[in-house]
Amino acid sequence: MSGLDTLVLLCRPGFEPECASEISEVAAAAGFYGYPRLDQGEGYVTFYVHPPATALELMETVRFRSLIFTRQWLACLPKLEDLPAKDRLTPVAEAAAHLPACAEVVADTADTTEGRELRGFCRKFVSALAPHLRKEGVLLPRKEKSAWRMHLFVLSGREIWLGVAPVKNSSAWEGGILRLKFPARAPSRSTLKLEEAWHWFIPKHQWDRLIAPGMRAVDLGAAPGGWTWQLVERGMFVTAIDNGPMNEDLMETGQVEHLREDAFVYAPAKPVDWMVCDVVEKPARTTALVIEWALNGWARQMVFNLKLPMKQRYPEVRQCLERIESALADQGGWRLEARQLYHDREEVTCWLAAPEIR
Ligand SMILES: C[S@@+](CC[C@H](N)C(=O)[O-])C[C@H]1O[C@@H](n2cnc3c(N)ncnc32)[C@H](O)[C@@H]1O
Fold first, then answer.
1. Helix (H, G, I), strand (E, B) or coil at 122
2. 307 part of the active site
3. Which atom of ligand 1 lies at the shortest distance from residue 264's CA?
4. What is the pLDDT of residues 144-160, one digit of tens each?
5. Residue 1: is its pLDDT beyond 80?
6. Does 3.40.50.150 match the CATH number of domain 191-353?
């Protein structure tokens, strides 16, 4: 489809350079050339795909889940500018006729103050736009299935990127953000990182098998216990490793053993189902720890954070992931995925699963 030559990628504000480096590298590896544009702090990057290839083809080739710093992506028409306040529906509908068939339309904004202030406008606009597009025959009836979802990426009432995302190769969450409610009884806010990691990496229908009651887990750098709390909520038995104090209510569940030991020295007496690690350390050291756990078969699944350095954040993450992949290359199909989650700040979260985890 012509005109769809720009990929718009949403990311955490401040991480536009990482998002841009990553898409340039991943696209080139898949045979797509182009150039990124970004403004620091805007919460998105545009990547212009050189013709004859299009952004649609790029999205059909690259696996969305392979991107670490992209929360959502859209193949867009040239940006709609100077939209008249009196009638935005007509120009948007005219442009939408150039998109692949969609049965659904949603609106995203950047994860910035200006973006958040536009959310009310977006809701109202989409609820007027959807019936208008259906009446004009530009949007399929709701009950029909389509491979594409129509997106508006709204910069202001006058400026909108209009495009599509593949339903099966994009984020299903508005703006690529999973908004979770903080559980009042959890000992720390970082509890949401582990919960979001599970939502992103493990399909919900596999939770009862892969995050199951009765499993044994080790939490490295556990205090005060936000991650341990999630494991306990799932009915697991947890060994919490930290010199710091654990939350008392959590200890009273009887499901937690607290050991004041060094995470980098501790070894479990018997293999466990899960190892999670939120220790604030240099990413290279965490990487070596994870490799040690995997090679010794100490855990079948791991969720761990790689804390990002001040500079060279993208190359550092790539290097750590490559080290893990090459260390486990002849170990028969370990799976490694990484993402900068919404609840992550200067870090990315990884999930590593043993070959028998399918
Ligand atoms: C970011 S906090 C963990 C927060 C925890 N995941 C939660 O949800 O409450 C990092 C923890 O790692 C611990 N830590 C740092 N170095 C460690 C080490 N070498 N061994 C064990 N714990 C360590 C710190 O004491 C701190 O409690």
1. helix
2. yes
3. 19
4. 999 999 999 999 999 99
5. no
6. yes
